[in-house]
Structures are given as C-alpha cells and as structure tokens.
C-alpha cells in the first residue's frame, strides 16, 4: 500500500501518522468532561490526499470541535480554543513555545508592524523583567472558542494579504499595557502589571481600535467621532472631508445635519431655492462608504435630525424599501431628536409643527440649551403667519417614527433635553447637539467652516473601554479597575495622533472618556436575578460604586496631572454630579441612597477639578464580550448558545457558567417586553454622565395575533422618557425563524449577508 504524505508548516513532508492527531486531541480534551476525541475525529471526516498540508488537517479539527458546541456539550468550546491557540503558536513562533518578548518586538519592528518607539522607552533589562515576571502565556488557555476566534481574526496584528500573524494574545495584551503606561516613569512596572492583569483576565474590556491598533504605527484609537455641519456649502464640504478622514481610521461617526435648511428654502437673494437635506445626506453616505477600513469592516454613521424639521415626512422613510433610490438613503442610519414639548403634545393630543431651521431664528439652539426658551419660541413661530410651516397630530408623528423604527430596526431616538440637563456639560456653554453611531456618546460639537477650522470648529472623540461586572463580587472591587480604566484611556489621549485639528483641540480641551459595562446578564444570573424589579436595588448599589470610583479616579488624576482645559464648562468643575441631575421619577423605582462618600468627592471636585470631562458611556460590546466569554454589554442573551456568522463560518458562544446557571439566565425572547430592561437602564443612567446604547426588543409570540401593538411600543417610549432615557438604539424583533437563525445576532433586509451587517455595525462597538 502506498504511503500518504503530509506537508508540514516548514514545507517538509512526512508520512501521515494518525497518532499525532490523537495526541493533539488528547491534549486539547485534557481535564474536560462531556467531550469525545472520537466524535471530533468522526465529524472532521478528514479526506486524506497525498501531500495534504498539516495546517488543513488542524483546521478541520478546529471546525469539527466548534460544530459540536451545544447546550449539552459546551466544553467543546474549550477544545476548539485550545486547538486555535496551538495553531497560532506554531504559525507565529514555529513551535509551541513563544520567543522571548524582546525577540518578538525586534522581529515585529523590523517587519514594520510594531511602533518602533517602544524600544526607545524600555531597556533590555526591563523587557527581560516583563517577560519573566509579568507576561503569562498560559492565560491563552483561558479563552473560549468565540473569544479566540475573534482574537485571531480581528485583533492580532497580521498581514491580511498573505495571512502572516505576528503575535499571540498575551503579547497583544502586554504590548498594549507597555504602550499606554510607557511614560509612567518610576511606577510603570506597577501599572503595566496591574493593567496587563486586568485586561488579560478580562476584568477590563478594550474596543476594537485599541485592541487592533495600539502597539502598531497607527495612532488613532478613538472609537466614536461626533461632528456636525453648519448650513453652508463650505461647512458641508469640510464635514464630508472629515468623514473620509475618520472613516479611514476605523472610527464610527455621529453626524448632525439638523441645521440644514429644508427643501424649497430661499438661498441668498432668493434667485435659487434649496434642494433640501436628502442630496446632502447622500453626499455624506458616499463619504462614509468610500473607505472599507482595510477590509476589516465597512464605514458606518448615524445622522441626527430634529423631529420638528420641515422635511420630517420625507426623512422618516429614508431607510424603508419603498420609494426610489432618489428619495432614499438606505446605507446610513439616522436618529430623530425629541424633547419634553414633543411628548407633551403626544400626551395631550396636540400637533407637532415642522419648520425649516433657517426660518426660525434661535429655535435650533434653544432646542438643546434652554427648554423653556424653546417652548416660547416654538409657540411664537407656530402663531406666526409669515413663516413657512406645516403640522401633523403628534400621535401620527410618533406612530410614523415607531412604524419605521420597527420595520427597519435601525431608526434611533435621542431625547435632547435629557442629554443636556443630565449630561456632563453646562448646556449654554457646551450643548449636546447629537450622539454617535451607536447612541451612547453625548459630547459637544461645533460645525467646521473649513477643513482646517482652528477657531470655532469642534469634532469630539470618545475613547472607550468597559468593566466586566460579571467578575465583580463586591462594589468595593470596582475601585482598582476603574482607576486602571481611567488612567489607561487618559494616557491614550496623549499617545494617539489627530488627523484633524478640530478633533485635537477638542480632545485636549475636554479629554472625554467612556467607560462602559459588559456581562450584566451574567452578573444578574449568578445572583438569581432577572431583568425585573427584583434586580433594581442590586443594580443601583453596584452602579453607584462603579460611577463613584470612575469620577474619583479622574478627580485624583487631576491632582496629579492637571484638569482638562475646559473644566469649567463641565458640571463636574462646579461640584455637580450625575446623581444631582437625574430625573426624580427614577426614585419611584429605587429609593435614593448615598452609600458612597459623595459629599467629600463634591468638595474635591470644587477644589481641584477633574481630569476628564466625561467618564461613562454604555456602549454595545459584541466583540469584546466574546473575547472575555461575557454576555453582550447590558443586554439579555438571546440564547444560552448563540450562533454568529463570521468570515470563517458559524461561531458559537456559550453563556458563562452554563452548567450551574442554565436555568438562571433571563433570555431575551422569554421576556414579555422591554419594560424590566428599560427600568434597569434607568437605574444605570442615573449614575452615567453620557448615555446608554439602549435597545428595545419584542417577541411577537408574546402578544395576541403575533403582532406587537402600537400602544405597547408607544407606552415603552413614554416610559423610557419618563425615567430620563437619552438615546434608543436598535429595535429588535424575534422573527420566529428557525432556531439557529433566531439565535443569530441582528439580521436586516438592508444587508445581503450577516457578515456585511456585522461589518457595518462594528465601527464603534467594543
């Protein structure tokens, strides 16, 4: 019988030896219950041919193990992860044992994939110390399949043309720590160790730009960019150019186009009339889609518009599949902005009147800065017979908004009064005009009059991370991780570059951060709590401590490194805290308590100020949650095992501690509606200076005739406003497809494939 040879990674050939497969699988399955080597081998169904590459055999074993992951057999996720880890070390180091850290750095600087500046900061002896005493390659064994697969495909530095990978996960983590704390002379080994431990043990999650970029020559790591356009061609062109700049740097954008005058408005002497918003929104869409971000993900943006804009009826249908391409802008998301007066009109049966912002002086600014003045001007302009306007019953306006939001899943909401009154900034000095791509950022912005506007133009950036609540056992545990999160992100602001002057000026003046939450569902499950009223007291206690320690960390950092330049434009600079500005209706849910020493913190803020104008933002956390085997952000899981389509096939993720907590998780589609979830978000929002990326989710099977009533959606919208909600993100509906499809992450008819959708959405998620 003719022997079959396999081709090794080195290019050498050797006779196929099935015992090698057995030995690798024995190692991968060691100490695991409920896994079978023979099952993996049979499912792999290896079709041997002469000179078959060994790496292809290994890939079949990984795929086979991954396909065996179920609720009943979750430990196959560890087998698959170990097999990927084994493959990675062979690919990167040529062996299962990693090189010394200095050799890795030298090799990757020579390959021009690491920032050469790292060797200017660390001596050989320091690198040796880090290698021997801090870096722990064994932690690569702590990943699950989903985490390791995301790490391999998205975060590890690699050549995406030829498939060369230059590092393994623990090297990624230690390099990030070394880069961010490189200037902490005298204390940097302490902070490198603590930060490395925190991120490699999944206590702190980092966003895609940091994970993929820090340590490389690329120096733009802010996840979210907030910019706006003034009502002029120069500003529109400057905005378009800025969009391209930041899309190419892997950022997700929030674009405020609310100032643009409506179709039919006079221009200049009236010899021409304005074409309206849609042509300019198409321009922005083209700018957003012009860069694919190196094939990693597509550009993405959300446009913000006031609900009272004259073109509302045309704008609200921009994403639906009816109408022509000339009247639609389907490849950009958009959000409508509401305030108290709009809700009052809804509840009292009144009308909403629509204006072109250009025709109503002072109204647009008052919408964000002064709610009493807005109402006064709004009613004045409604009475005027000289101003072009139209109106609809408020119920019809809200119904149109909710209908389109439900059908597309991708029309968002911002309550601009709450974003300003319960925000970090003094409204009349630094008003919030919009949010970002994913609806969690609330930062000031000013339209650019030119691309290099160095006077009034302001582009705001927010740099993100998140604390893993699932690993926190006591509120006091937050102190260490909040300090590390704040110090690391603050250091990042000085380390990164800024492609646009208006962004650099704003960031250096305000130094905004956004620290969020992951693994809330696990946090609740292991305490026997669901997304209902029983969880509110516990969430309140932990949210208070989390918020306190974040603010305290920035206040302490201010004593050490100075305040942000525009500290007096923040409420913090005047000793005003988030717990001083939240809506009192939240006290109906949980009676207000102050467990933390807020009084002394107020005094400290008044005396020494704060380093960062914002500290909190609750962002989506799809990818980073998978990295740390955590549940997504603050969201309930859709299933105990979720299946997500990736570029390399179906990826299964198992909820933490499925063996012990299988019956404790409060799954999304088991919930009657979003009310319990919205109440928990209200409690968290009480302690947050920016926003929360809040979703509303409905399972039609929970309602009569399998239809979600408009009255139910309207009730939830009003409830969200009542308790101080700022922004609403996705509208999720269980489409009652097959099990696997219903467990998949969001699918939308705007996208041909799941991967296309995922790529679109991940510009700003963690």
Structure description:
The protein contains 30 helices and 19 strands. The strands form five sheets. Strands 4, 5, 6, 9, 10, 13, 14, 15, 18 and 19 form a ten-stranded mixed sheet that branches. It is globular, with a radius of gyration of 26 Å. Mean pLDDT is 91; it is low at 736-761. With 766 residues, the protein is of the alpha/beta class. Helix content is 41%, strand content 11%. Among the domains are: 1-93, no CATH class; 231-414, Anaerobic Ribonucleotide-triphosphate Reductase Large Chain, CATH 3.20.70.
Category from helices, strands and their pairing? alpha/beta
> Low-confidence spans: pLDDT under 50, at least 5 residues?
736-761
The oligomeric state is single chain
Number of strands: 19
The portion of residues assigned to helices is 40-55%
| Strand fraction | 5-15%
CATH C-level category of the domain at 231-414: Alpha Beta
